[in-house]
C-alpha cells in the first residue's frame, strides 16, 4: 500500500470500529451543536447589550439586566452540554480501544507460531498496550475538539452573515490558506510519527529482552554492549521524536498567523463601515468576537490533526497485528481419544523456504511404543515435535493419528491427546494449584496431590507458605522446581500420547531417577516421543530414530543400532566412552 494512502486507510478502519457506537456519536454531535450554538449566541447578546448604552445618562438598565441574565443562562447550558459531550466521548474512545485490544488478543490466539517467532515480544506488547493507549488519547481529543470545531465554523459563518455579508465573504476567501498550511505540515509529521512509533517498539523489545535475561547479560559481561544497543535505539527514537514534534508544532503557529491576518482585516473593514454608518459599535464587537471564534477552531483542529497523526500511526501498527494472516482455519471434526498409532508419510517442511530442513520424512509408530528421537543440534528433532502438535503445518505430506489426518481435525482435540513437557518451562502468575491444573481445571486437590507425589514435586510444594494456594510466578521457583511442576501437569492429565523434549534437563540426578520411574509408569500403554541429548535416558526405547539434516538416517533399538556401528554408535560413544572406561 502506498504511504500516502495508509493514513486514510487506517482512518477508515478506526471509523469502522466506531460504527457500533454511532448512536453515541450522533448524541455527541448534538451536544456539541447545542453547546456551540448557545456559546455563539452570547456575542449577539453582548452586542445588543452594548448598543443599549447610548451614553452614560441613557442606559436601559432593565434591558441590560435582561441581556446579562440570558448570557449567564446560555453560558451555563453551554457548559452542561459540553460536559455531557465529554462524557460521551470518553465512553466512545475507551470502548473503541477496548474492542481493539480484544481483537488483538483474539488474533494472537490464532496467529501461527511463525509470526510470533519472527516478531519481538516487546514490540507486540507495545502495539497492544502503548499504541492502543495513544489511539484512545487521539480519539478523545479528536471527538472533543473536532466536532465542536467544525460546528463552530459553520454556525459562526451563519451568525456573521446575519451581521455583514461583505466581511463574512472576505473571511471565507481567506479560509483555504489555513487548510493548505495545516495539510502541508500534517503530511510530513505523520511520517515522522510512524518512524517514532516503530523505534519505540524496538526499544520496548530490547528492554524486555535485556530485563528478562539479565542473568545471562551479567554472566557474559554483556552490559556494555546492551547499553550500546539501547543508546543507538534511544538516539534513533529521540531523532524521530524531535522531528515529529518539530513538524507538528509548526501547524498551530502557522495557522494562527494566517488567522491573525484575518482578524486584522475584519477590524480594518469593520472600522471603515462604522465611519460610513453601515455598522454599529455593537455590530463590529460581534463580528470581531465571531472572527476570533471562527479562527479558534482552525487552531484547535490543527492541534487535533497533529495528535491524530500520531494516533493513526499507532493504530496502523495495531491493525498490522490484527490483520496478520491467521493460521489455517480450524476444522469442526473432533479427534476422539487416541489409541496412539502414528503415521508420518513423505513429510517435507522448512521454516525458511529457501533453506531445506525436513525432506521426505516417513515413519510408523505403533500404539504403546516409546520412540526416542536423537541427533545433533539443528537436525530437526524439535521441528518434528512441532509438526506432530501442529504448531507448524507441513509443506507437503501427511501425518495421521489412528488413521485420522491431523489436518482434518481440530487442533484442540489433537493437542488434548498429547501430554507435552518441554525443556523451556512456563508458569503463569497464579497459585500452584492453578498452574498444575491448566489442562484439567476440574481436578480435585486429591488428584493434584497424587500427581505431585508421583513426580516428587509434593516435597517442596507442601513446604510453601500456603501449599497449593501459594501464588507463584516464573521467578518464584528454581528451574528444576518449575520443570517438576510442568511434569506434574502432564501426570495429572494422563493423556494417551506423550512428548518429552529434554523433560528432565534441569533436575538433579537423584530426582531424575525418581522421575524416570514415574515416566515409566505413565508411559505404560502410551505412545511416547522422547527428544533427548543424554542418550543414557533412552536406552530402553522401543524405537530410536537417529536424525541428521532433517532425515532419518538410522532407526532401531539401542542394541541394534550399537551393533550397526554407525552414526548412533559414534554419537553414543562420544558421550559415554570416557565414563565407561
Structure overview:
There is one protein chain. With 581 residues, the protein is an alpha/beta fold. It has 18 helices and 12 strands. The chain has helices at 3-18, 22-51, 61-110, 113-118, 121-163, 165-212, 214-219, 223-275, 281-322, 381-388, 411-416, 432-436, 445-454, 458-461, 479-493, 509-523, 558-564, 567-580; strands spanning 342-349, 358-365, 370-374, 396-401, 404-405, 418-421, 430-431, 471-472, 497-501, 527-531, 543-548, 551-556. The strands form 3 sheets. A 6-stranded mixed beta sheet has the order 6-9-10-3-11-12, sandwiched between helices. Strands 2-1-4-5 form a 4-stranded antiparallel beta sheet, covered by helices on one side. A hairpin with a 2-residue loop joins strand 4 (396-401) and strand 5. Helix 2 runs parallel beside helix 5 (121-163) and helix 2 (22-51) packs antiparallel against helix 9. It is elongated and about 120 Å long.
Amino acid at each position: 500500500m502506498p504511504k500516502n494512502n495508509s493514513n486514510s486507510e487506517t482512518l477508515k478502519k478506526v471509523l469502522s470500529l466506531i460504527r457500533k457506537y454511532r448512536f453515541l456519536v450522533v448524541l455527541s454531535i448534538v451536544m456539541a451543536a447545542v453547546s456551540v450554538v448557545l456559546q455563539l449566541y452570547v456575542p449577539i447578546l453582548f452586542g445588543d447589550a452594548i448598543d443599549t448604552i447610548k451614553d452614560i445618562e441613557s442606559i436601559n438598565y432593565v434591558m441590560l439586566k435582561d441581556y446579562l441574565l440570558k448570557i449567564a443562562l446560555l453560558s451555563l447550558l453551554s457548559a452542561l452540554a459540553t460536559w455531557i459531550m465529554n462524557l460521551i466521548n470518553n465512553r466512545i474512545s475507551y470502548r473503541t480501544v477496548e474492542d481493539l485490544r480484544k481483537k488483538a488478543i483474539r488474533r494472537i490466539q490464532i496467529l501461527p507460531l511463525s509470526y510470533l517467532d519472527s516478531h519481538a515480544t516487546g514490540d507486540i506488547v507495545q502495539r497492544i498496550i502503548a499504541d492502543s493507549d495513544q489511539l484512545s488519547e487521539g480519539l478523545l481529543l479528536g471527538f472533543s475538539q473536532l466536532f465542536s470545531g467544525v460546528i463552530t465554523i459553520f454556525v459562526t459563518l451563519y451568525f456573521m452573515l446575519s451581521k455583514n455579508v461583505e466581511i463574512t465573504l472576505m473571511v471565507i476567501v481567506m479560509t483555504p490558506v489555513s487548510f493548505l498550511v495545516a495539510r502541508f505540515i500534517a503530511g510530513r509529521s505523520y511520517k515522522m510519527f510512524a518512524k517514532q512509533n516503530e523505534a519505540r517498539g524496538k526499544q520496548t523489545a530490547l528492554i524486555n529482552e535485556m530485563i528478562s535475561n539479565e542473568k545471562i547479560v551479567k554472566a557474559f559481561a554483556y552490559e556494555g554492549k546492551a547499553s550500546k544497543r539501547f543508546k543507538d535505539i534511544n538516539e534513533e527514537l529521540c531523532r524521530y521524536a524531535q522531528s515529529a514534534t518539530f513538524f507538528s508544532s509548526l501547524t498551530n503557529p502557522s495557522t494562527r498567523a494566517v488567522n491573525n491576518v484575518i482578524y486584522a482585516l475584519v477590524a480594518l473593514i469593520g472600522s471603515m463601515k462604522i465611519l460610513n454608518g453601515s455598522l454599529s459599535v455593537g455590530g463590529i464587537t460581534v463580528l470581531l468576537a465571531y472572527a476570533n471564534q471562527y479562527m479558534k477552531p482552525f487552531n484547535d483542529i490543527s492541534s487535533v490533526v497533529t495528535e491524530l497523526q500520531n494516533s493513526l500511526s499507532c493504530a496502523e501498527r495495531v491493525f498490522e497485528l490484527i490483520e496478520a494472516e491467521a493460521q489455517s482455519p480450524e476444522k469442526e471434526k473432533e479427534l476422539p481419544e487416541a489409541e496412539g498409532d502414528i503415521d508420518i508419510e513423505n513429510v517435507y517442511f522448512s521454516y525458511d523456504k529457501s533453506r531445506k530442513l525436513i525432506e521426505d520424512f516417513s515413519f510408523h509408530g505403533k500404539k504403546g511404543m516409546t520412540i526416542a528421537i536423537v541427533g545433533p543440534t539443528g537436525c530437526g528433532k524439535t521441528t518434528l515435535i512441532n509438526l506432530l502438535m501442529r504448531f507448524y503445518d507441513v509443506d507437503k505430506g501427511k501425518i495421521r493419528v489412528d488413521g485420522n489426518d491431523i489436518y482434518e481435525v481440530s487442533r484442540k482435540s489433537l493437542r488434548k491427546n498429547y501430554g507435552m513437557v518441554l525443556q523451556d518451562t512456563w508458569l503463569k502468575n497464579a497459585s500452584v494449584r492453578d498452574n498444575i491444573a491448566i489442562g484439567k481445571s476440574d481436578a480435585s486437590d486429591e488428584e493434584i496431590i497424587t500427581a505431585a507425589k508421583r513426580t516428587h514435586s509434593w516435597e517442596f510444594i507442601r513446604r510453601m507458605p500456603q501449599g497449593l494456594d501459594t501464588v507463584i510466578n516464573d521467578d518464584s521457583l528454581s528451574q528444576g522446581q518449575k520443570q517438576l511442576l510442568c511434569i506434574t501437569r502432564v501426570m495429572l492429565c494422563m493423556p494417551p500420547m506423550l512428548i518429552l523434549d529434554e523433560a528432565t534437563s534441569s533436575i538433579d540426578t537423584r530426582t531424575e531417577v525418581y522421575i524416570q520411574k514415574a515416566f515409566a509408569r505413565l508411559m505404560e500403554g502410551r505412545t511416547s516421543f522422547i527428544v533427548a541429548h543424554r542418550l543414557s535416558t533412552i536406552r530402553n526405547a522401543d524405537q530410536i530414530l537417529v536424525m541428521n539434516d532433517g532425515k532419518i538416517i538410522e532407526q532401531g533399538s539401542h542394541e541394534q543400532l550399537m551393533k550397526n556401528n554407525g552414526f548412533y554408535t559414534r554419537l553414543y560413544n562420544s558421550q559415554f566412552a570416557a565414563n565407561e572406561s
